[in-house]
Amino acid sequence: MDTPNEIVYAVTADSTGGRAGTSSVPALGISHVMRAPKELGGPGDGPNPEALFAMGYGACFQGAMGLAAKELGIDTKDSVVRTTIGLGPEGDSFALTADIKVFIPGVELDRAQALVDRAHQLCPYSKATRGNVPVTVTAVAAL
Predict the structure, then answer these.
(1) 134 shares a domain with 79
(2) 52 and 42 in one domain?
């Protein structure tokens, strides 16, 4: 288990009403009315937990890429991280998958894949999902 040596940042969110409710981060003044996707019987016209998770994971992964880029001497300035979160039935509940595709312009795919693999080792979201959620990370020639 990866446990921080110390907590340097913490954020608290309040949620009510599940997929048809509201989630907020009072300290930041952020609030979203959640909307279940059409595939789950909702209207599909707003944020849902999987969409917010995809955004958070992608942003966190790109931050980890910055650390890996320094180690490997690769410029990731114009890179794009595309994160797809899948949700499907598993037993009597549901489970997630994550697929991360990374485009780094001007970087050969083998070098980009080495960077992506290293970022996957460093990323806090990757650490949190490791052993719990199937995650693929792939450097791609274009998005």
Answers:
(1) yes
(2) no
